[in-house]
Amino acid sequence: MPADSRLYRSIFRLALPILAGQLGNIVVGFADNIMVGRYSTEALASAAFVNNVFNVALLCIMGFTYGLTPLIGAMYARGENDGIGRTLRRGLRINIIFTLIIMSVMGVLYFYIDRLGQPQHLLSIIRPYYLIYLAGLLPASLFNVFAQWSYAVGNTRLPTYIILSANVLNIIGNYILIYGHFGAPEMGLTGAGISTLIARSLCPLAIMAAFFFVKSNRRYHAGFSGRAKAEAPSTGKIIVTSFPVAMQMSFETAAFSGAAVMAGWIGTVELAAFQIIVITGTLGFCVYYSFGAATAVMVSHRAGLSDRAGMRRVAWAGYRVLLCVMTLSCLTFIFFGRPVMGAFSSDPAVVSMAAGLLMPLLLYQVADATQINFANALRGTAHVLPMLYIALVSYIIVGLPSTYLLGFTCGLGIYGIVLSFSVSLILAAVLFLFFFLRATRSPR
User: Fold this and answer.
1) φ and ψ at 214, to 5 degrees?
2) Which of the four pLDDT bands, split at 50, 70 and 90, describes residue 26?
3) Contact present, 323 and 291 (Cβ < 8 Å)
4) In angstroms, rounded to a whole number, what is the distance separating the alpha carbons of residues 49 and 120?
5) pTM of the prediction?
6) Backbone angles phi and psi of 40, in degrees to 5
7) Which residues are CB-neighbours of 329 under 8 A, at least 6 positions away?
């Protein structure tokens, strides 16, 4: 079999289980928003605000766990099982501390919600949902630490099975608690939050049970328990590879969350339409991320063997796959975008406004696929410090001002806000590619 064919098969083998989990997340995200949107426009707009604000915290926490992937992946390629267990234990401790810090910051922000310019009549819906979301951050962190271990050792199926099971539970809980079925109280958006919290809390219990009780994972227990004096990255090394990825994802998400806040300045209908576009765009993002994560794992394995040429081959193979996937995503948006958007709300004004944002949604797909591929490829090399600066410049220094400029200064409103995503994503894509090529160039 040709080398390129084996490479593509390996990418698909790792990516497809992750994709199944991501598609499950899309389904539950769609179900959440459809159920909440059908309940009321106010509930949908409130969910849009809280979800986008918390996306910064959640993606920051998730990004911090991603720093484990290149470290564990490199050790897996070298067969260092005790080192993997010890790294996982250290990573778990560091991530718990980091998550508690983020939760404290978000807890303080709760007392200033009324100063963020959102419609006053939404605050009574926003506040309880905010607190429930806050409680779910630590379970999400615990699950993702073990998920990154599982991905790095080539077992992408385990986290997927857990995510899909949790998604089914979440949808059932939504049906019961949002509308008050089977004797439960009608709780609206608060019910959706409780359902998500329950499902999210079960995920770390399931994956930790698999780590400790599945026979094939016993090889990592000696290192995890501290019985084996294995070579492993220091706490400082884990932080160095984790923090830049966390900041990269935080800055990127902050740009989208800042856009959501600006959409709320325009009005409730605009904010609800913005949420529909973001959720629709998640279809593309989650598919791209699945293949990007597979690329990161395969790059990390070659990095563990110091195979620079192999790292580049993996990255370019992953990018070719992503370009094909991106094309399919755009065709899906073109032919099925409006019907999908119409499922999220019964308000004709909201649906019409969301459908009018299809063109800027399509424009940023190429840049999004490119930046996801090469950001993950760069993450796989463990040379991640540039990711922090790339994200700061692309999403904060350039991205947020572009959002305000196109949305308000140029008078394009919600259309300009969504259009501005292309500006930051294109810049990030170019910079990630540049630094990946620099990190993998042959030594002289």
Assistant:
1) -80, 130
2) low
3) no
4) 13
5) 0.78
6) -175, 150
7) 283, 284, 287, 288, 365
